[in-house]
Amino acid sequence: MKVGTKSVLFGAHCFIIHPIFVFAAWWKLFGFPWDPRLWLAFIVHDLGYWGKPNMDGPEGETHVELGANIMFWLCEVPRTIFKDINKLPDEELFKWYNFSLYHSRYYAKKNEALPSKLCFADKLSFALTPRWLYLPMVNATGEIHEYLKNAKKAETKHWKPVEGQKVWHAQLCEYMIKWVEEHKDGSIDTWTNANRHAITESGVWQ
């Protein structure tokens, strides 16, 4: 079973557990998510990890596309069925598609787009997930090895290379909280590099 599939089933991106913490993060940042399309996005945005042989490699980085396509077909197409889509601006036609697609900081940076609100909730959800729950999940899937390997690669003012799961987890929680706080109001993301990895090389690319 591929690591991405395991992550969706019982790892960091578990389709049952992860959406709960994304929901909690959204509520904390933006208020209660009354729109059912938000709940759908919480559930499907990471399903694209299914079948991926890595989390952060060329295959894993495309995981955002499946959720975006699901959002497009379930949320965009039904509401435009009686409209002339040729007359609709892209921001309206692809609203929910982009909402899911750009939950990745990297993907947004690569396409010269701003991260969506889902991105901020997704990143904050990491810090809200208890360590006693998160670490056993990523150890069970084996994805922790990729995360820790990447965590040793870079040193910036936002990230110091670390070893050890608890130290890595603590630093990444702090990093995610600070990144969300600094960028949630639309500030240009100078922490993330368009060359695939966040500058931190922290190993969590959600």
Please characterize this protein's 3D structure.
The chain has one domain (3-183). It has helices at residues 3-10, 18-30, 36-44, 64-80, 90-93, 95-101, 105-110, 117-128, 131-141, 143-151, 165-183. The protein starts with a helix and ends in a 23-residue tail after the last helix. It contains eleven helices and no strands. By secondary structure, it is mostly helical. Residues 196-206 have low confidence and may be disordered. α2 (18-30) crosses α8 and α3 packs antiparallel against α4. The radius of gyration is 17 Å and the shape is globular. The longest helix is centred in the C-terminal third of the chain and has 19 residues, at 165-183.
Characterize this entry briefly:
The chain is mostly helical.
Question: Could you list some keywords that capture this structure?
Answer:
206 residues; mainly alpha
Largest sheet: none
Shape estimate: globular
For the termini, the CA-CA separation is 20 Å
Q: In total, how many beta strands? A: 0
Unreliable segments of 5+ consecutive residues: 196-206
Total helical elements: 11
Chain-averaged pLDDT: 86
User: What is the count of distinct domains?
Assistant: 1
In N-to-C order, the SSE pattern is: HHHHHHHHHHH
| Quaternary structure annotation | single chain
Helix vs. strand class: mainly alpha
The percent range for helix content is 55-70%
Question: Strand percentage, roughly?
Answer: under 5%
The radius of gyration is 17 Å
